Amino acid sequence: MPLRLRKFIGMILLVLLVAIYAIVAMIVAVRTLGDQPAWVHFLYFLFSGTIWVLPAMGIIKWMAGPRPQ
């Protein structure tokens, strides 16, 4: 697969990942954190705000293509 096509597909996947992840994280927060103390909100958003990086790293590595020998 050409590198330009990989980067285009990867960009679309990253945008979809961030959009879907943000919606799901918001739905989970609204349904579960309603009457929790502020520190629980802080920990949830700290964790959920950084965990999306793991799948994004996989997409970015795939976009870069195979390592040159």
Explain how this protein is built.
This protein is an all-alpha fold. It contains three helices and no strands. The protein has one domain (3-61). The chain has helices at 3-32, 38-51, 53-64. The longest helix has 30 residues, at 3-32. The mean pLDDT is 92. Keywords: Membrane, Transmembrane, Transmembrane helix. The chain crosses the membrane at residues 12-30, 42-64.
Notable traits:
single chain; 69 residues; mainly alpha
Specify the number of helices. 3
What gross morphology would you assign? Answer: elongated
Give the percentage of residues in beta strands.
under 5%
Number of domains: 1
Fraction of residues in helices? over 70%
Radius of gyration: 16 Å
List the quaternary state of the chains: single chain
Q: What's the helix-strand series?
A: HHH
The separation of the N and C termini measures: 18 Å
Mean pLDDT over the residues: 92
Largest sheet: none
| Poorly predicted regions | none
Total E-strand runs: 0
